[in-house]
Design a protein that fits this description.
membrane, single chain, ARM-type_fold, mainly alpha, SCD domain-containing protein, STAG, transmembrane helix
């Protein structure tokens, strides 16, 4: 309850209000009657109105109950029009129109509400602060809550006092609030729709309570029953009237906050009053929300669907048609760019599966293809989305498991079979390399219980022992992924920025950690003794060897304690050495996996470590012997050396270089790379040789770090780096004629290796080497950019083919290719940017580096250049010099790219003046000077800086241009566009494209009103089609709008006798009870005439303004406030949506 405020004068003497016979029962206003208060809350000062006191009381935190009580007393004592005007003025002041108030004349039937609203808006000061509903301070948040509660209490207390349905209070409020909700002013629509939603919500609660309290039919109760039923019917009609006239249109409002309010309240009504609102005609409103561009509105629609499926009884049948129609959209939203929307969409799919079960496909809500598309979110980069997809996967498994196998061993086996079948499909049809890791990561969260079909891993081991190679690979993949997940070693790439909270690994309770450790030990022991048999059975299969290697890398070797188990592991290491020695040409991923297996043998501390090192040394001797034979072979020429044998040797050398140091073999490695650097050598083979040499250098650097003050070691490392850099340059000089599909992998890897080496202080590139380096960087960026554009086009075509019934596997393949190219370009750009950041490249070459910004087709790559630009700019504290040098380099490179580079550079400045704003002005002056003396083409770049200029700077530049005869009289298109841009920035001419009616309807109070005042001093406030009527009734309307000090002296009008609020004009009643606008044939002509009149009137005003003198303009400025703008033109979309509905996106002022 608000504290008592010391005031000068009370509004009216208090009076006791008697409650009606039937109490109300609303959630917002539950209780009996009107609460008593010791003193009135609405207190007035001298010269203030009741509306101002009402607004002040709610703003200062007074209790809404006591405020409504005082209004009811005043209303019952005869101040009916005073109370109605006070409530309307409260809405006006909450909308920001605090300088003008309505009197009793505004309540007459013949009052033009639209004109009065435009007058209120026009008299709002231009420098006025924002209206309370968009301000974030604490007192305004309290006011918004009190405002909603005020209207909810008004319904309850008004009904208890028998004044709600008297034909004046509610009908008057609804008439004005509905008119406000259709205003072009967002502030009026916002505050009125909040009030209308609160009124409808309170009416819903009141109607439900009265229905529950209807007396049973009997002698003497029929009259009371009829009276209550009549009241209920009247309130139902009022509620439906508000929904059809106002709320029905606002889900398509241009203001997102208004759309969000409507959807929030509709969702609450559907959940709380499901018997009346849980129908398809209300559900379909949320179909628009699913396509809304604002994520919070899409999330609100998904939240409603989720709560409805969970909480509302028989919701599955009621929402069935809605889900059936929008199932495709729900599937699309599972991949929404907003993480919250994607999570909610997947949860909705889970509920659909659980509510409908196997019937979801039979009822044509979800089919297997839709479920497969949703399950692809298992491979999302965001962990939260993967975990939600894991819940969906479990629901899908539960819906497909037979009912007779709902628990126990049969369920676990059936679930694991489904999971392995899904993984096998992903591998065979979609080309996924490691789907099991993503599936395990999605299904298991360390903070939750492990699914039973994963905890009892016997079914996995059955697949490991299968005769089918694909089933073995899938089983090994699941075992390896589960071990990695349990040991917190499962890594699926860097976490995205919006979902880094999932990357925090929380420490588990001791008892739970013990259970997990026991499971890791048991699984390692059981699967480890089976691996040697698997290798024997599938000898020579590289894919199975890679799967066994993944399991070895994830195993806990301390689990093998008995002699039999140790013997099996020793046999496994021997088989691994033989399989590695006989390794044929294979993919890079398989080589990396085998390397991880050997690192698990020799790096982890376990009793078998020494035996593993012995196997590695044996393998190393064998490989070095074979490599030396290849190098010294003289009986055969190089062309006779089979490529297969070379891949055989260097594949094993690449594995060994990651495990042991090959520094003593550096001369042999260097000679090999020089020998095979020619056009006939496969790029893949050169990648293996380069990677081996690079690891050899890293081993030497590790030795240097461990050695203290060893000058000799430093000299050795620097020499090795210099020799490797020379080899890389020689590889670049190679003109290969055999450019395979993945030929860019070699230059990308070599570029990244060179950036890593030059980032060290052991080696510094010469100027000639820097020129070659930048030239290769330019060439590589151009090639990757072109390939990226082609790959995106293929992905787009694959998506279109899929929509027409094509294979989803082609989409997945195209998406992987796009990801690979983007990763390659990102690696190269990051490496070069790091050299500039570490001063390993001179700052003079920075403009040449930024030229490749033009070849950045993705946001991630572009962000690298943006970060580099900010860092270099902050380092030198001079943005103009850097931007100027980049533009000059772009001009010499290609003048056609000037505009694109100018767009990128100008975007580095904030929309408002920032720390480096002076650089914008300097860049424009530089462009003018360069265009005057050299080439006007430079104006293509600097024209993008014009919108960043302040008005005074733009005026100064415009005067300079007017004095520059070379550009002022130039016929060059670039010069003309630049002069036009400068004039627009100086507000000397309107922006291009501002001649449309909608554009001219915006910002009228801020842009047009000053021109009208300066032009003629006129301030007629009526719509153009009713100016004659306004002239005749000018005096009457002037009396309707008064100052607060004159409010109390106005007379009151008579009491209305209408039973409900009047229906808005030009609306028809449909069969479903909607009051909508007429058909398209009746609406279009009026729209066209309104648009033409608006365009003529708008174009005429500036013309009249130009003929006025400065003295008349000054006199007009001192006159009355400006007029409101043209009449609102509302567009009807009935033909496009439903034949019985109209959704309107109201034009508005900004």
């Amino acid at each position: 309850m608000a504290g008592k405020r010391k005031t000068k004068k009370a509004a009216t003497p208090g009076a006791t209000v008697t409650a009606a016979a039937a109490p109300t029962d609303t959630d917002a206003a539950r209780g009996s009657g009107v609460p008593d208060a010791a003193e009135p809350v609405l207190l007035q000062e001298e010269g203030s109105s009741l509306g101002e006191s009402l607004y002040k009381a709610l703003m200062e935190g007074a209790s809404a109950d006591h405020v409504v009580k005082d209004l009811v007393r005043i209303y019952s004592d005869g101040g009916k029009e005073t109370v109605c005007c006070a409530i309307l003025n409260l809405v006006g002041k909450a909308s920001g129109a605090a300088q003008v108030e309505l009197d009793g004349n505004a309540l007459k039937d013949d009052a033009d509400v639209t004109t009065l609203l435009e007058e209120m808006y026009a008299r709002t000061q231009q420098n006025a602060s924002a209206y309370p509903f968009v301000r974030k301070e604490t007192k305004y948040r309290v006011f918004r809550t009190a405002y909603r509660r005020f209207f909810a209490r008004l319904v309850e207390f008004g009904y208890n006092a028998n004044i709600l349905l008297d034909g004046l209070l509610l009908s008057t409020l609804l008439r004005w609030l509905i008119a406000m909700s259709e205003s072009k002013a967002r502030c009026f629509r916002h505050t009125s729709i909040v009030a209308l939603l609160a009124l409808v919500g309170a009416l819903n609660g009141l109607i439900r309570d009265l229905n529950h309290r209807l007396p049973s039919r009997g002698r003497g109760k029929q009259q009371q029953l009829n009276a209550l039923q009549e009241s209920i019917q009247t309130m139902v009609e009022l509620r439906n009237h508000v929904i059809s006239q106002s709320i029905h249109q606002r889900p398509r409002d241009v203001a997102p906050e208004i759309r969000l309010l409507v959807f929030e309240q509709l969702g609450k009504w559907i959940l709380n009053y499901d018997e009346e609102f849980a129908e398809n005609k209300y559900f379909r409103y949320f179909g628009m929300a699913l396509y809304d561009k604002r994520p919070e509105i899409r999330a609100e629609a998904l939240t409603m669907i989720q709560k409805c499926l969970v909480a509302t009884p028989e919701s599955g049948n009621r929402i069935f048609l809605f889900l059936q129609f929008f199932a495709g959209r729900l599937v699309e939203m599972c991949g929404d760019v907003n993480m919250r929307c994607a999570e909610l969409a997947i949860r909705v799919m889970v509920l659909i599966l659980r509510v409908y079960g196997e019937e979801a496909e039979g009822k044509e809500i979800l089919d297997n293809e839709m479920i497969d598309r949703v399950l692809l979110t298992l491979f999302d980069e965001r962990p939260s989305i993967r975990h939600e997809a894991g819940v969906l996967l479990r629901a899908f498994i539960d819906s497909r498991v037979p009912k007779d196998a709902s628990n126990g061993v049969a369920y676990q086996k059936a679930a694991m079979e489904l999971l392995c079948a899904f993984s096998a499909t992903l591998r065979s049809q979609y080309g996924e390399v490691m789907p099991e890791r993503y599936l395990i990561d999605a299904l298991y969260n360390p903070l939750q219980e492990l699914p039973p079909f994963l905890e009892n891993y016997g079914s996995m081991l059955d697949f490991v022992l299968s005769d089918d190679a694909l089933e073995v690979v899938v089983g090994l993949g699941f075992v390896a992924a589960l071990l990695e997940k349990l040991r917190c070693k499962l890594y699926l790439g860097p976490l995205p920025k919006e979902d880094r909270r999932q990357g925090i690994v929380k420490k588990l309770p001791p008892n739970k950690q013990e259970v997990i450790d026991a499971l890791v030990t048991s699984l390692s022991r059981d699967v480890g003794v089976l691996l040697d048999g698997v290798l024997e059975k599938h000898r020579g299969d590289v894919v199975i060897l890679s799967g066994v290697s993944a399991v070895i890398a994830a195993m806990e070797f301390k689990a093998f304690t008995s002699l039999e188990q140790v013997a099996r592991i020793n046999a496994l290491m021997t088989l691994m050495r033989k399989a590695t020695a006989a390794l044929p040409r294979c993919e890079e991923a398989h080589l990396n996996q085998i390397t991880c297996a050997w690192l698990g043998f020799v790096v982890e501390d376990h009793p078998l470590k020494s035996a593993a090192k012995g196997q590695i040394q044996e393998l190393l001797k064998q490989v070095l012997k074979q490599l030396s034979a290849l190098q010294k072979g003289k009986t055969r020429s190089e062309s006779q050396l089979e490529e297969k044998e070379l891949f055989h040797v260097w594949g094993r050398m690449s594995i060994l270089s990651s495990i042991v140091s090959l520094v003593d073999q550096w001369d042999l490695l260097k000679a090999s790379i020089l020998k095979y650097t020619n056009a006939s050598t496969s790029p893949e083979l050169l990648r293996l040789i380069l990677s081996t040499c690079m690891r050899c250098v890293l081993w030497q650097l590790k030795v240097e770090q461990e050695a203290a003050d060893s000058l000799e070691a430093t000299t050795t490392a620097s020499q090795m780096i210099g020799e490797l850099v020379t080899c890389i340059f020689k590889v670049w000089e190679m003109d290969s004629q055999r450019q395979t599909e993945n030929f860019t992998l070699l230059p990308v890897d070599s570029m990244v290796y060179l950036c890593d080496l030059c980032a060290l202080r052991c080696y510094t590139m010469s100027q000639m080497e820097q020129d070659v380096f930048l030239g290769k960087f330019s060439e590589l960026s151009s090639v990757l950019g072109n390939e990226m554009r082609e790959a995106k086009e293929k992905l787009k075509n694959a998506g279109e083919l899929f929509c027409e019934g094509g294979a989803l596997s082609e989409v997945a393949r195209s998406r992987r290719e796009v990801s690979r190219l983007e990763a390659s370009q990102l690696r190269v750009a990051t490496g070069v940017a790091r050299l500039l950041m570490l001063n390993r490249l001179s700052e003079d070459v920075a403009p040449r580096v930024f030229l490749q910004w033009l070849h950045a087709p993705t946001k991630s790559v572009s962000d690298v250049f943006r970060f580099l630009f900010r860092s270099l700019r902050d380092r030198c504290n001079d943005s103009f010099t850097l931007e100027k040098s980049i533009l000059i380099a772009t001009y010499h490179h290609s003048s056609d790219a000037l505009y694109q580079m100018g767009m990128k550079l100008s975007s580095m400045h904030w929309p408002l003046p920032d720390k480096y704003y002076a650089a914008c002005v300097s860049m424009v002056r530089f462009g003018i000077e360069f265009a005057t003396t050299t080439d006007p083409a430079m104006l293509q770049a600097v024209v993008t800086y014009c919108p960043k200029l302040l008005k005074m700077d733009a005026l100064s530049l415009a005067h300079a241009l007017a004095a520059n005869e070379t550009l002022a009289k130039s016929t060059d298109q670039n010069a003309q566009l630049f002069i036009s841009a400068i004039r627009r920035a100086a507000r000397l001419e309107e922006a291009e494209g501002a001649t449309t009616p909608v554009r001219r309807a915006k910002r009228v109070r801020e842009e047009k009103m000053s021109e009208i005042m300066e032009a003629s001093g006129e301030h007629t406030l009526q719509p153009r089609n009713s100016q004659r009527e306004a002239t005749e009734e000018g005096k009457e309307e002037e009396n309707m709008l008064t100052s607060p000090s004159q409010f109390n002296s106005r007379s009151r009008s008579g009491r209305r006798t209408a039973g409900k609020a009047p229906v808005a004009s030009r609306r028809v009643l449909t069969e479903d009870g909607w009051r909508v606008r007429p058909d398209k044939e009746e609406v279009v002509p009026s729209m066209a005439s309104s648009i033409s009149e608006s365009m003529e009137a708008t174009s005429a005003r500036p013309t009249r303004g130009l003929k006025r003198s400065h003295a008349k303009a000054a006199a007009a400025t001192a006159a009355a406030p400006p007029t409101a703008t043209q009449e609102t033109v509302l567009s009807s979309l009935a033909a496009d949506l439903d034949n019985d509905e109209v959704f309107i996106a109201t034009q508005e002022y900004d």
